[in-house]
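During the no-cost extension, the postdoctoral fellow (Dr. R.K.) reprocessed legacy sequence entries with the updated structure-token encoder. One reprocessed record is reproduced below for audit purposes.
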Amino acid sequence: MDTNILEDFLKLADTNNFSRAAAERHITQPAFSRRIQVLEEYVGAELIDRSKSPIQLTPAGESFRESARQLLEQLQGAKDAARSLDSSDSFHVNLAFSNSVITSYLPIIFSTLINRVGSFRVNAYSDNTDHCIDSLVSGESHFLSAMYNSEVPLPDRLTQFPFAVLSHTCLIPVSKPAPDGSPMYALDSQADNPLPFFTYSKGSYLLQVVDAFLEKKSEENLLNVVLQCNYSDGLTGLVAAGHGIAWLPKYSIRSELTSGALIPAADEQWNIPLEYRMYGKGPFSPLVESIIKDLRDAIAHEE
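Re-encoded structure tokens follow.
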């Protein structure tokens, strides 16, 4: 697939100079100018205002510039993903995980890949959701693994990428149990004092989710934030030690709920629904679709 003509146009848009753009693209200026004219004929609109010095993009050119850039990024991502997933002998994939999911879901994904692919190599990257999205958009990662809540839309730059929902889960407000089996810290709008509250760090997507939920319920005054942390695992230990309350992912505290080390601090109306999603750089290949099906089955079995 020849994408050179799009790269020519983007170079011209960056330099605003035919001679310099042609030189940087290692092509003669007459040939370069002709390629830009061919592109304009194909698009059906003038992209360059040649009456000005230096030349400028027309409104149509400005619009096409962003479309061309996105198209090249998507094509590169699709090509990289296809190469990575072409065969079990050369399987190599870069996965970006939001901080809240890597500990619980990386082992499941790794086991699924072993069963489905065999020989492979994975580079797993973890950060807050926004930085993970940047990794996907830039092409550094082939896939993004993250949570989603309908009350907190993800950035617009992610809408161009296909995704699959791997499971439905939730954040649960939990507390250490008191000796009588009730929550040591129970969510009660009639409480005299705010409860000590552990939550997620600034920039965390789950912080936005929890804050939006509490704002909608108009119950922010029930809680007093005493600590913020990037990782839910860190919050789990503090709650289990009896220091306060936190909204923790159900998938990450299965053993604590089963053993009784943690119990819900309120009824299910205080649970916050989440979707666990997998985003990809390009359309999912048949191999990726089969891996997604296996992942859904494995996660459902675990939960």
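The chain has three domains: 4-81, 95-158+277-302, 169-274. The chain has a mean pLDDT of 87. The remaining legacy entries will be reprocessed before the final report is submitted.
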